[in-house]
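Tutorial handout. Part one gives the primary structure; part two gives the three-dimensional structure as tokens.
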Amino acid sequence: GATTSSYTTPTTATTDSGRWYRAVATNTVSSVNSAAATLTVTAASVSLTSISLAPASSILNIGQTVDLTATGNFSNGTSTTPYDSSVTWSSANSAVATVATNGSGLVTAVTAGTTTISAYAAGVTGTATVTVNAASSTTVTLWATIDNMVMYSSVTPGTQTTAYPTGELAVGSNWSYNSFQGIQNVLSAQSFVKFNVASLAGKTIDSATLTLTTQYAGIGFYPRNWYIGTLASGSSWGGAITWNGVSSFTYYIASQQFFFAPTAGGQVYNIGLASTVQNWANGSWVNNGLILETTNYLSPGLSVTSWDMFGFYSSETSWGPALTVTYH
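Part two.
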């Protein structure tokens, strides 16, 4: 029985809704004075105690997604699922995986690594771990499908209009002076190489290396640096171009790489071309091939003899141009 003017019932729950409570007053002399009684029901305070995410851990490949579901757990023993729209989502490392900020827990794998995805509300945070696997890579070696040398001669005009689709890939110039006739001859060469990279379309290029092997080196006194460039024009050059035919060819300045002239036959150049091949793979650049040439072809002066031209093995040999590409 109640011995004070107020009495608190045991904690009630939602399931107690509609129940009746009876108050009985007694005294020591067995008489009852009736009076009105008021029953006040006060809702218990309910707070968010934890947030759980499912799945708690995920392993994804690059580009894959997983939809995390948040559950809000409350102090009265109840829970709400999904609780996604009530939380703020974030990724500890968005370079590894991102999470949508539109009220859903959609996670997208970006690159290899591990990150923590968090869901926050009312001072409470729930987390899940996302691991992104490194992409598996494939390595292929491509051989030149077309290579071509073009030549210029100051005393043999027909050289400029002659195609040299086979033989070595010559670069540079030879100067020869005939002291009896007083004639200075300049013989210069450029070379072009093309690979079929259609199989790389849409791929991410991890590395690309062009291998060129020197067939012979110059033996003159005025060796010139040489460079390789990626052609921006000249897609129809095929295998029968001439010196005069390449006069309008252009190349991407950003692709230009310079090298010292070789000093001996059999010297190998391994040239990084990852940027060029990536541009070919994603379609930013049309694959017009590569140009090999020296920095200039001007004679070092009159009355000079100097054999500075050098050559690489062409595709007709097993030492011809090779492009080794690793991609995923």
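Part three, for discussion. Helices lie at 274-281. The longest strand covers residues 183-194.
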